[in-house]
Design a protein that fits this description.
51% of the residues lie in helices and 8% in strands. The relative contact order is 0.12. It contains 18 helices and six strands.
């Protein structure tokens, strides 16, 4: 049965359309980030960067960061037109992922999605048709590709959506309409419907609809009779999300990605429209000689790609559940929270006051965080334990260089979660200078003393 599935083919048009729009959106994202001055403010100006555990060797590049973004932008355009596609997608994956690993302050689910999606696209023949590669080397031009190459993208999208829906099956989201309630009450000036955002029923409508949408939209997209209306909901949902919440290009990425669920003839029509717009005269489209050709993987690729993708998807299916290995409330500790498609589930605000103690002379003094961190970094650090311990280590090392032999670092930290009253977050009696940052449970996080029921 598996061999029969692997031998099935489908038209290459869906991969070509996906490649074109993916490349365009990635290029726009890079230009947008650059034009807003975020390269400088996020990656160059900060004196300190919060690295991911295990990736401390990924270091900021200073002014060379502009070159890294330029490489991302150029390769995104190469992906779009399908020129030297394999080199372009590998380079894009490496450069984009390097950028994201420089500082976890910038972590967003959609950045993670782009990294793992671009990794997946390395192994798929997105340049088999309607590409510069297929035009320059007609031997590699094919109108058909293995069906699994299209299904792999669908599977990744399904994981993102369904896991995001499962994550919303919690008591804060469904029974308290939090944190949607907090956010909507700040948008009562929104055109037409903003006046309704003050009412509880609207908060619950958004919460429950968001949960149901994430859980079931993929299945409606897979089922042909409901596909068109489901895609209308995809567009409306993500456009509204973009207008209400500042989450960058993610809504547009999901809108474009949703096209992959449509039949090949829909994508062929899109390619025909692009041909007319750019006056390509069909040069990149299928010719009589390639009408029935199927993209063929090499013998080596057939051996190594299936195991790689099996491992890849196994990780994607299991990684979101790693939080089960940790005690205490996930939303409070955030241990196992990232990389699990927990989208817009928490609103946390924190205040952290760090104190340095010189044990030799008994002197102590408080730290002004703005002397070391940007405002954005302070906001992120104040609510996330791994940030707090990394910052404590930085302070320790800094004051060692200032002449204090064994500085102790303590923090008084208070956090509010999803509209609750603020609570003490970190044990203020623990010298964080001696605590390690690792995947182990951080015992110096104080208990939440409440239960948020759900997955």
């Amino acid at each position: 049965m598996i061999s029969n599935y692997l031998n099935k083919t489908t038209k290459a048009a869906p991969l070509a359309v996906f490649r074109i729009f993916f490349g365009i959106l990635m290029f726009i994202s890079i230009v947008r980030f650059w034009s807003y001055g975020w390269i400088d403010s996020v990656y160059i100006q900060p004196k300190f960067h919060f690295s991911y555990y295990g990736f401390e060797f990924i270091q900021p590049l200073g002014e060379w960061t502009y070159l890294l973004f330029a490489i991302c932008g150029i390769t995104a355009l190469m992906i779009c037109v399908g020129y030297k596609y394999r080199l372009a997608i590998v380079t894009f994956f490496l450069s984009f992922t390097y950028i994201e690993l420089i500082d976890k302050t910038t972590y967003l689910n959609h950045y993670y999605f782009i990294s793992i999606l671009s990794f997946l696209l390395i192994f798929l023949p997105l340049n088999a048709n309607f590409s510069v590669d297929s035009f320059l080397n007609k031997k590699n031009k094919a109108n058909y590709v293995p069906s699994w190459t299209v299904d792999a993208i669908k599977l990744l999208l399904a994981i993102v959506y369904v896991y995001a829906g499962l994550a919303k099956l919690n008591s804060d989201w469904l029974l308290e309409a939090q944190p949607i309630k907090i956010w909507l009450r700040t948008r009562t000036d929104f055109p037409l419907i903003g006046g309704f955002f003050q009412y509880n029923w609207m908060h619950y409508f958004f919460s429950w609809f968001g949960m149901l949408y994430d859980l079931f939209i993929v299945f409606f997209l897979l089922y042909k009779p409901t596909r068109k209306i489901a895609y209308v909901f995809v567009v409306l949902f993500h456009v509204l999300t973009h207008l209400l919440f500042p989450i960058g290009m993610f809504p547009y990425i999901m809108i474009v990605s949703g096209l992959i669920f449509f039949e090949a003839n829909v994508h062929q029509k899109i390619l025909a429209i692009l041909t007319k717009i750019f006056r390509l005269k069909g040069a990149l489209l299928t010719t009589a000689k390639t009408a029935n050709t199927t993209y063929a993987y090499s013998a080596l690729s057939k051996k190594i790609i299936p195991p790689i993708l099996l491992i890849f998807f196994t990780i994607q299916l299991l990684l979101p559940w790693r939080y089960l290995m940790y005690p205490n409330e996930l939303f409070w500790t955030e241990e196992g929270y990232r990389f699990s498609w927990r989208v817009m589930l928490i609103e946390k605000v924190g205040l952290s006051i760090f104190t340095i103690v010189d044990p030799e002379i008994g002197k102590q003094f408080d730290i002004r965080n703005s002397d070391f961190l940007t405002d954005f970094q302070i906001k992120q650090m104040s609510t996330q334990p791994d940030f707090i311990v990394q910052y404590a280590h930085m302070l320790r090392d800094h004051y060692i260089s200032e002449g204090i032999k064994s500085p102790e670092v303590y923090v008084k930290s208070y956090v509010t979660l999803n509209g609750r009253l603020n609570k003490e977050f970190i044990d203020s009696k623990i010298n964080l200078a001696n605590e390690k940052d690792s995947f182990a449970h951080k015992k110096w996080i104080l208990p939440f003393y409440e239960t948020i029921k759900g997955l």
